[in-house]
Design a protein that fits this description.
Elements lengths: L6 H14 L2 H13 L17 E3 L4 E6 L17 H24 L3 E6 H5 L3 H11 L3
Parallel strand pairs: 2-3
Antiparallel strand pairs: 1-2
Bound molecules: zinc ion (ZN).
Zinc ion (ZN) binds next to loops.
């Protein structure tokens, strides 16, 4: 495959991808929005907890969570080495997730969190569409 980006550009892209994490999940979600004619989403909104997608008109904040970092029990991803260290980190993330949800809800936002494995296997759609229609104005 021929790389159509210059070296500089390529490294900029790689850096952006790395710092954002969850890239393929987000792209998959955008495809899903298009397919289901879901519009009105915004990215990189300055909102508490930094949701991956925000629907300002519906006051809806969507988080795409990595299974490992957010402690999903779908796969046994936790490393055996330094288990205490990782468990503690993940527990802290989960606590923060709850806090983010509480604070956003107190400001009138509806919060939807979805794990990356659900997005990848497309188990998300029905659930999300239901949520989305219930949030309709
Ligand atoms: Zn998962």
């Amino acid at each position: 495959m021929v790389d159509c980006f210059s070296k500089k550009k390529r490294s900029d892209i790689m850096r952006a991808v790395k710092s954002r994490g969850n890239r393929s999940t987000e792209i998959k979600l955008i495809e899903f929005f298009r397919k289901n004619k879901i519009t009105g989403w915004r990215r990189n909104q300055n909102l508490y907890g930094k949701p991956d997608f925000v629907f300002p008109k519906k006051n809806l904040a969507l988080f795409a969570d990595g299974c490992f970092w957010h402690g999903h029990n779908c796969r046994n991803l936790r490393p055996r080495e330094n288990a205490d260290y990782w468990n503690e980190k993940i527990e802290r993330n989960k606590k923060r997730d709850k806090k983010v949800k509480r604070i956003l809800q107190s400001k009138g936002w509806k919060v939807f969190r979805v794990f990356e494995c659900k997005i990848k296997t497309e188990k998300l759609p029905v659930k999300f569409l239901e949520f989305f229609s219930s949030a309709a104005l």
